[in-house]
Amino acid sequence: MGMVFGKISVETPKYTVVKSCDGYEIREYPPSVAAEITYDPSEFKDNKDGGFSVLAKYIGVFGKPENQKPEKIAMTAPVITKEGEKIAMTAPVVTKEGGGGEAKKTVTMQFLLPEIYKKAEDAPRPTDERVVIREEGGRKYGVVTFSGTAAESVVSEKVKKLTSDLEKDGFKITGDYVLARFNPPWTLPPFKTNEVMIPVE
Questions:
Q1: How far is CA 2 from CA 17, 43, 108, 135, 182, in A?
Q2: Is residue 165 scored above 90 in pLDDT?
Q3: Which of 6, 54, 78, 153 has the most CB atoms lying inside 10 A of its own CB?
Q4: In three state form, how does the secondary structure of 119-166 look?
Q5: Kind of pairing, strands 103-112 and 32-39?
């Protein structure tokens, strides 16, 4: 019942607040290990969150984990998504805009693995080749937290405002934003916790 009202009872990443600003924070995150999948939403009937079920199967949410041990891995929060570069229809690799053929936007979804996995090789190897285990180095983000459903229009507004605030306050933006969602879909919208995170120097 608690999850309906937004209670987050799973492991979340540790971070240090470097600076609290008007409406956002600058945070430093230590290195972590993530399971991720990059896909064209059309592979999942145009569902941008289609990769969730693939990652959930890897950690064993739906029964036997789809990894080589097989080892059940605890769910963590948040689920991280980023809209990626375009992928050329003629190539199986992610490319910068412009590759050959008609290009489509990709989505990368990540589950951060529990802190016990310090290196990529510590995590069980996925049996689904679409799942990649990678190490994320320490990183610094400008972060704005908001409740409600993370609809595209809302996220777009948050990104625009945060970008403007970071630039105004003299921070150098070093990459594209990521969206972090902390609750399952059945959590009531007013109780959902979301964050837009923009990497900075």
A1: 27, 33, 29, 32, 13
A2: yes
A3: 78
A4: CHHHCCCECCCCCEEEEECCEEEEEEEECCCCCHHHHHHHHHHHHHHH
A5: antiparallel
